[in-house]
Design brief:
896 residues, alpha/beta, 28 helices, 8-stranded parallel β-sheet, globular, 8-stranded mixed β-sheet, 38 strands
Length: 896
């Protein structure tokens, strides 16, 4: 049988199109083909193929190949044709290219189809009988219950534009379809889709824009399938409200001093009560590396797949039969649950002890469960090495696998033997299987419960992996272990951030089509409907910090086009290698940095090059060496000041030499203009260097970074049907919003972090529809906390954004907090998401007294203890009728 593919797409010079086919035979066997298409005219690309007569089904999709070879798939995930009814003749598929950035595509992601829009549009039951020449297919995501899509147009076959004679369409999956016999029609013919209020079709509301037009004719030997993508009705009318809170921050009467997966159910009950449709959480992967509070950092996972034992609900594991095993912990549970903050070590100590006892009691029964066997087989690719990693971590007393006496290099066969039933370590390894199984059950049950309340769950996927993690142990080649990921300086971390994670070896990951990432997304889709890509800028370029640096200030972007030595000559800049690449240290710099301690620093840490000019001694030439030196000294404020000052001396450079370039290629040090090294240069040299700096950071890289992102993000986004949101904050290249829009990834908009550098504040009313707006994130102070940080800034906000006259109140009064929430609720963005603390801030009786106790993280502090807990239990929140009623009314009034 011959199948001809036609797709409407107006290409640019250098672009071409492909069609990807998955052909399925009667036995389920599949084969895949990629067919280059031919340019037909300015409107269509075309290709024909003969398929075997036994073919049952064909799934297909189109891909744009741009001038640089980047592959950009169209946004349609459900192009499929059944061939069981037709064995001869020709089938012509007339498709409309589906831009991935089309708003309607969002409504075909899992959260909308399975929860938020389930039940919309009833359709007409049954199939149409009789002969036909054309099949019309179209999508209309926002139909209301009881509404039916219809087709009307020229001629008798399409009802002559009369509502009563329009062809009602049948709902088949995501598509609305209708068959029509147009053998007697006059071509070209015009048509439109419309919405009726039921089978009577007394009222038909036609789609907007000009009439659709169908060229050609009709033949009994040819069936033409017309895929019209989306019916043309407003698609930006759906808006929702979300709440953001870490799971560990939840408080209930029955939890164990920390929020647990079980507590998500009560939060979902509250969300439904007030009209909130989304719960956003922080990463919940296992971070157990040291068995100390340092593991409280949720972005340092030892596995990108395993869940954290912190969140397990012991009573659900024990059940009635083993409940007595938990009696000994009841007193400690109550003590921990009364604490204002999470005692991470206390909670984990009790849970580990209890879980070992429960596993010992239940392991035989657990191994025989069908559910456990299915879980193990579906997850063994990560579960077996993860359990072995945890066992070896505890055996050697460290997660640093380089210290594991011959087991630091992962060997699959050896690890399989280590975890085999009957082995010496099997019980210790099975403990982790047992815990992960119960965590899986509890999180799955919690999210399914939320779905029944009409609430979706949004997860968070960290940009990095922990250096001493199972992922790095198993596949070190996927990561650049000699570098550290971080972020350049911003208002919240003036010296940048160094997360310590290895960066990704994208070239290696591309070799298997990003298999690790696709598995990671697939694992998340077991539990989550949407997810936030932490630091999506890292898919364009990552801030890479050498191992010898402690602060992020000494990093540079990777990949990145460096500055070549000849560019300085071309711009008339005298190139002085030592002056530009070595720390600039003079008596004046020492006085400004250390004050009265300058003499001590000269004597202990510096060599004098010439009168008044110095260099760091070899033993202190890097920040890491300085840190290691002061780790052996008494921890005093004076020593802390000396260490920080020496860090500043090390970073007081203008250029960072590219390793292996023999002094020919360089990266500019970020914030070069702020260094005393730069300020000491002649004004003319400053201006020329500044111009080259601007070219390096803001011009030459943009197209290059776009190309890098398009090699990764389309493949990764296509691996899941979750709703994808990106955290696009910080030093954002121009190409980032362009690529995110092109791929239909929602942006993040924050009122106090405008992306337009000319503005002090971003106004929620200016938000694009495909975005998430929020007044604060977990990395920031709450609205109330921010109000007290800078009087001049809040005074400006009081006048410009709130439209108030006079002096701003010193404290953020409830009406101010409420006004900020209202601005976000009434904005045009698809999602308005609030930290729960910011919602509490609108109620003077309910909120915490000190807003600074509500902050979750301080990014400038790499050793921050993540321990924030709600100050009231969710049971009490459900009974806060005045607050809940007010919030419900606010959400309803906003149309969300």
């Amino acid at each position: 049988m011959k199948i001809s593919f036609y797709v409407r797409y107006h290409t640019q010079p250098g672009q071409s199109l492909q069609v990807r086919l998955t052909v399925q035979g009667p036995g389920g066997a599949q084969s895949e083909q990629v067919l280059p298409m031919e340019y037909l005219n300015e409107t269509f690309w075309q290709v024909s193929v003969d398929v075997p007569g036994a073919t049952v089904r064909i799934r297909y999709g189109y891909t744009l190949v741009d001038a640089e070879g980047d592959l950009i798939p169209d946004g349609e995930r459900e192009r499929e044709i059944e061939l069981t009814e037709r064995k001869g003749g020709e089938l012509r598929l007339l498709d409309t290219w589906n831009d991935a950035n089309a708003v309607e595509n969002v409504f075909y992601t899992a959260p909308f189809q399975q929860v938020l829009l389930s039940g919309g549009g009833t359709g007409v039951p049954g199939r149409q009988e009789g002969s036909y020449t054309h099949i019309f297919k179209v999508k209309a995501p926002l139909l209301q219950p009881g509404e039916v899509l219809c087709l009307s147009g020229d001629g008798d076959a399409l009802g002559r534009w009369q509502a009563a004679k329009a062809l009602p369409m049948a709902r088949e999956g995501s598509w609305w379809t209708v068959k029509a016999d147009l053998s007697a029609a006059d071509f070209p013919l015009q048509y439109k889709y419309g919405i009726s209020n039921g089978e009577e079709q007394e009222h038909l509301r036609f789609e907007g824009y000009e009439n659709r037009r169908l060229e050609g004719g009709a033949s009994r030997e040819t069936i033409l399938v017309v895929h019209d993508s989306f019916a043309r009705f407003p698609a930006n009318t759906w808006r929702g409200t979300g709440v953001a809170v870490p799971v560990f921050s939840l408080r209930t009467a029955g939890s164990f001093g920390v929020g647990e997966f079980e507590d998500i159910k009560l939060l979902a009950d509250w969300a439904r009560q007030v009209g909130i449709r989304l719960i956003q959480i922080l990463p919940v992967n296992d971070t157990t590396a040291t068995h100390t509070w340092m593991d409280s950092y949720p972005y340092a996972a030892i596995s990108a797949f395993a869940l954290h034992p912190l969140y397990i609900h012991l009573q659900r594991v024990a059940g009635e039969q083993d409940a007595p095993l938990l009696e000994k912990y009841r007193g400690e549970q109550e003590r921990l649950n009364r604490l204002p903050e999470v005692d991470y070590e206390g909670v984990m100590r009790c849970k580990w002890e209890a879980l070992k006892a429960l596993c010992a009691a239940q392991k035989d029964h657990c191994r025989q469960e069908e559910g456990f066997a299915a879980f193990f087989e579906a997850n063994r690719h990560w579960l077996v090495p993860y359990a072995a990693f945890c066992c070896l971590r505890d055996h050697y007393g460290t997660a640093d696998f380089s210290q594991w006496n011959g087991q630091g290099v992962y060997q699959q066969e050896a690890i399989e033997r280590l975890g085999a039933p009957g082995s010496e370590h099997y019980d210790a390894i099975f403990l982790h299987y047992f815990i992960q199984y119960h965590l899986h059950l509890q999180l799955k049950e919690a999210t399914e419960y939320a779905h029944r309340q009409g609430v979706i769950i949004k997860g968070d996927i960290p940009i990095g992996i922990y250096r001493h993690s199972c992922d790095a142990w198993v596949s070190p080649g996927l990561y650049n272990m000699d570098m550290q990921a971080g972020a350049p300086p911003d208002a919240f971390a003036v010296k940048g951030q160094n997360w310590g994670f290895p960066t990704y070896n994208w070239h290696r990951m591309e070799d298997d089509h990003f298999e690790w990432w696709r598995r990671r997304f697939g694992q998340m889709s077991n539990y989550f409907d949407a997810f936030r890509i932490d630091h999506i800028l890292g898919f364009f370029r990552i801030w890479s910090v050498p191992l010898h640096a402690v602060e992020g200030i000494l990093g540079h972007f990777v990949p990145c086009i460096p500055v070549h030595r000849v560019e300085f000559d071309q711009r008339g800049i005298w190139f002085d290698y030592d002056r530009y690449t070595r720390p600039f240290i003079t008596d004046g710099v020492l006085h400004d940095t250390f004050g009265q301690a300058a003499a001590q620093v000269r004597a202990e840490f510096l060599d004098e090059l010439s009168p008044g000019w110095y260099r760091l001694k070899e033993a202190f030439s890097t920040q890491r060496q300085v840190q290691e030196h002061f780790a052996g000294r008494e921890q005093t404020p004076e020593n802390e000041t000396l260490q920080t000052g020496l860090f500043d001396l090390v970073s007081n450079v203008l250029l960072l030499e590219v390793e292996g370039s023999n002094g020919q290629e360089f990266h500019f040090r970020i914030d070069m203009q702020a260094t005393s090294s730069f300020r000491d240069l002649h004004h003319d040299t400053q201006q020329k260097l500044k111009n080259l700096y601007v070219n390096y950071f803001f011009r030459r890289q943009d197209h290059f970074w776009k190309h890098e992102a398009l090699k990764k993000l389309p493949a990764l986004k296509g691996a899941t049907n979750m709703l994808v949101c990106g955290e696009d904050l910080g030093m954002v290249p121009h190409c980032v919003p362009e690529v995110m829009q092109e791929l239909g990834i929602l942006s993040l908009e924050i009122q106090r972090m405008p992306k337009d550098v000319r503005r002090t504040f971003f106004h929620p009313a200016d938000a694009p529809y495909l975005s998430v707006v929020t007044p604060s994130t977990h990395d920031m102070s709450t609205v109330r906390g921010w109000w007290e940080e800078d009087r001049a800034v809040t005074q400006a906000f009081f006048h410009r954004e709130l439209g108030q006259e006079g002096e701003a109140p010193f404290f953020c009064e409830p009406w101010i907090n409420r006004a900020v929430v209202q601005q976000h609720l009434h904005c045009p963005a698809m999602w308005s998401i609030f930290q729960l603390q910011d919602l509490f801030g609108t109620d003077g009786a309910l909120r915490r007294e000190n807003p600074h106790d509500e902050r979750i993280n301080v990014p400038a502090n790499p050793k921050h203890y993540w321990r924030y807990r709600l100050h009231l239990a969710l049971e009490d929140l459900l009974q806060a009728h005045e607050f809940n009623g007010s919030l419900k009314n606010e959400i309803r009034a906003s149309g969300r």
